[in-house]
């Protein structure tokens, strides 16, 4: 009985050592005497004890590799780019992924350096920020083509950070601030110009309306004088006497208006009985003289022509 137990225990141990569990989204590489024998999927699996061995485990989940690349732009600015590459092992190419590459991370990193240092030196620093999607697409395209031969599929490549030298960043901020101040000054100048133009338009419109008001006022005054003269003519007063009466009436109205304001300056005109007629005669004489001067001037211009 004791000897049987001694034999059973080692046998059970050997059988148990042949059982192994593979986790979900994982593939196990099994070798027999150092040679590839098979791949095992998730679940409980069995290998030949003392003959087969587990050479390695490969995850089929998406993995991410972050690489920081230092390179120089076309305008001689050194910049650090952080590249994030998402990749996975193709289920049907586990053999290639395990046996063809000693260190896949180093291989992917080398390809990233090669692509970045081929693309970025063609661009100035500003274009690196603007065209980072193009850089990412170039990395994904070239890396995918290269890594498919090794059983790896590149899902996505991203340029997650662009970090130029600190002095360059300070200079870029100064340039940006100066540009914004320039735009602000231009807007302020435009606002001042618009304000001046609008004020000028308002003033011109005000003067136009004021002139129109004065013209309307004079038109109404003339119409009122004409009606007054007609009324006086119908009363038996001739035009000259009516004009003199109107002038003297306006004269006294003016005196009354001036007298109502204590701060006004009063100009005293002749107040004798013939003052209105004399004033009217003087006005008529002045108008006649002015008309003669205008006529003489017009005649002289025509004769010169």
Automatic annotation (TrEMBL):
<dbReference type="GO" id="GO:0006508">
    <property type="term" value="P:proteolysis"/>
</dbReference>
<feature type="domain" description="Band 7">
    <location>
        <begin position="17"/>
        <end position="176"/>
    </location>
</feature>
<keyword id="KW-1133">Transmembrane helix</keyword>
<dbReference type="GO" id="GO:0008233">
    <property type="term" value="F:peptidase activity"/>
</dbReference>
<keyword id="KW-0645">Protease</keyword>
<keyword id="KW-0378">Hydrolase</keyword>
<protein>
    <submittedName>
        <fullName>Protease</fullName>
    </submittedName>
</protein>
<dbReference type="Pfam" id="PF01145">
    <property type="entry name" value="Band_7"/>
</dbReference>
<keyword id="KW-0812">Transmembrane</keyword>
<keyword id="KW-0472">Membrane</keyword>
<dbReference type="InterPro" id="IPR050710">
    <property type="entry name" value="Band7/mec-2_domain"/>
</dbReference>
<dbReference type="InterPro" id="IPR001107">
    <property type="entry name" value="Band_7"/>
</dbReference>
<dbReference type="GO" id="GO:0016020">
    <property type="term" value="C:membrane"/>
</dbReference>
<dbReference type="InterPro" id="IPR036013">
    <property type="entry name" value="Band_7/SPFH_dom_sf"/>
</dbReference>
<feature type="transmembrane region" description="Helical">
    <location>
        <begin position="6"/>
        <end position="22"/>
    </location>
</feature>
